Amino acid sequence: MTVKIITDSTADLPPQVAQELGITVVPVYLRFGEKVYRDGIDMGHDEFYRKLAEGSVQPATSQPTPADFAYAYKKLSKESDEMVSIHVTGKLSGTCNAALQGSRELVESGCRIEVIDSLSTSMGLGMIAMAAARSAGAGENLQAVRDEVMEVIPRIRLFGVFDTLKYLARSGRIGKAKALLGSVLNVKPVLAMRDGELVPAGLVRTRSRGIDRLYEMLKNALNIQELAIVHSTTPDEAASLKERIASIFDRKAIHISRLGPALGVHGGPGALILALREKVSSIRQNAGESESSKKRLSLPSLHIPKIGFHARGYSPE
After folding, report:
1. Axis-axis angle for helices 207-220, 235-245 (nearest 10)
2. Does domain 4-154 fall into CATH 3.30.70.1070?
3. Rounded to two decimals, what is the model's pTM?
4. What is the C-alpha separation between 197 and 49, in angstroms, rounded?
5. For 162-220, how does the pLDDT look when each residue is reduced to its tens digit (9 = 90+)?
6. CATH number given to 155-313
């Protein structure tokens, strides 16, 4: 029996990709006031971003419940008794814990369910789930699929430019990027994910410079296997960036996805994210850590005070 792959809707997987690879997506909950919606099911992306930008009510998200996962696992158990369930970083959400709780009954009855923290989100998580599904589709057993996932996780890089930190600050999901909160207005923060947590990677004065920064960070990455461009409200920018990247990278391995409501609550309109997966050879080491791996996609260490940018010689581009 084929190992079944499960993830959550923060993965931002395009529906056709999830369907083609047989990935089950458990939705996060989205709340506007007293109304609750299931991410990707009850509300379209355009409607969500319109309500986010124009509405007076700040939406909130909540993780799927253990019962949601139990239902998904039980349904899949009719086809297979082996599953790998991969989820958003535990440093931003309790989704992994909910998945573990939801798996207990079936595990006790003999099903084998591996719940894994991806240490990522958006299409970083999405590409991990895709790798797992390809491995499962090739006939690999549970242990081999799990090993593939654990090998891919440290090879994922995620970074993005945001129009504002307002939405991240409101939601409390800002992580170490809170160092940027008190900075001068009208600049664009560049954030990255490191060890499952958001960290500051720079500040730029204009959106075009922010996109240039993403492109530069991409070029500094080691041997890339595949990548994804994720946008919230700017499909033309995503398409333009894809054309630019296609000049140095295989077009067929570039995915375009949309930041769904589960993460759009935190990223807001105008968010543009790059997620990439490095090849195994780019980080495999014989003994100790090589100099090249130490340097891969290094992020600047920012020490930005709450007033101005010119402390310690740093200024926005």
Report:
1. 40
2. no
3. 0.86
4. 24
5. 987 778 766 555 444 444 444 445 678 899 999 999 888 888 889 999 999 999 999 88
6. 3.30.1180.10
